[in-house]
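From the shared-data thread, chain only:
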Amino acid sequence: SGVCLFELNQFTYSVTSAAWAPDGRTFVVGSQDVNNPLTLWTLDGSQVHLWKEPSLRIHDCAISPDGQRLVAILNDDRIVIWDFPNRTKITEYQMGVKMTCISFDKAGKEVLINMSGGKICAIDVESGNRVGLFEGQKQEDYVIRGGFGGAEEGFVVSGSE
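Structure, as tokens:
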């Protein structure tokens, strides 16, 4: 209908990302706000969970298609992975580079991470091992999201500045 159901206005700093959970009834909001960095909401505007720890400032987030993992990239070059149903932190990886966005493959096993410097890295979510590195696009100032696609997701597509 296009009618606004509610507004989330308790953030004191930029909201940077949002991701739907596979149930279609809840969603996660990522923010630079250290008091509300990563929150889970329902469609009626109720907050279900708050992930909060020191220096947690979210740049982008994604939920695996099966709803098992929540992955976020932070401003300080870390990727953090949570068990989404249990809301517990599993691990984090230091990437050593500024990341702009993250997206899952359909199986929820790998993520693409767009990075400054014109690189996209594919990593295995469980091990943190790099399974692919893609170069050629220009990415410095803008968020440009890459994605898996094609037959058996054998291709990676990305925009470029």
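The radius of gyration is 16 Å.
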